[in-house]
Amino acid sequence: MFTAIILLIVGIFMLIVLAEPLVESVRRFSESVNIEPFYVSFILVPLATNARTAIAAIRAANQKRHKTTSLTFSEIYHKVFLNNILGFCVLVSVIYFRGFTCHFSAEIVVVVFVCIIMGLLASLKSKFPDWTLLIAFPLYPLSMVVVYFVNDAFQFS
């Protein structure tokens, strides 16, 4: 238990130290390629941070063992759900404790939508049939399309 607490403290410290440079890098990169920071952080940063899970998923699928593939899908589903819930809770906490007003934007609507779907998928089963991939996989591109149309096409903010 002591080791777990120490590792948690070290992880939080690393996050505090490295978060600002990551945000600044995303902002500078998005300015240099004339793309909104949301799109860069929604595509490139998750690819970089979840590369290990993606490689493990590909290796598990190559083994063609149902239990291994199911456990890998379970890890991915839980990771997506928890990442979105954590981000959403941090955003809502900042808005609440700082007294800001929030107009629900397309990004928040998409995060809530993905959290509900992934939460239901990840919570209801411990083994995932292959058809669940048909629900989970399109959520990422679908969420990008929703954000684009709601923000850019309808000028919703």
Q: What general outline do the C-alpha atoms trace?
A: globular
Instruction: Return the structural class.
Output: mainly alpha
Uncertain ranges: none
Q: What order do the SSEs take from the amino end to the carboxyl end, as H and E? A: HHHHHHH
Q: How many strands, which pairing sense, and closed or not: the largest β-sheet?
A: none
Task: Bin the strand percentage.
Answer: under 5%
Determine the oligomeric state from the structure. single chain
For the record, give the distance between the C-alpha atoms at the N and C termini, rounded to a whole number: 45 Å
Find the count of extended strands (DSSP E, 2+ residues). 0
Radius of gyration: 18 Å
In words, what does this structure look like?
The chain has 157 residues and is mainly α. The protein contains 7 helices and no strands. Helix 1 packs across helix 2 and helix 5 (106-124) packs antiparallel against helix 7 (139-153). The longest helix has 33 residues, at 66-98. The protein is globular.
Show the helix and strand layout.
Blueprint: H1 2-32, H2 37-49, H3 51-63, H4 66-98, H5 106-124, H6 132-136, H7 139-153
Helix pairs in contact: 1-2, 3-4, 4-5, 5-7
Q: In summary, what is this structure?
A:
The chain has 157 residues and is an all-alpha fold. It has helices spanning 2-32, 37-49, 51-63, 66-98, 106-124, 132-136, 139-153.
Task: Describe the structure using short key phrases.
mainly alpha, 7 helices, 157 residues, 82% helix, single chain
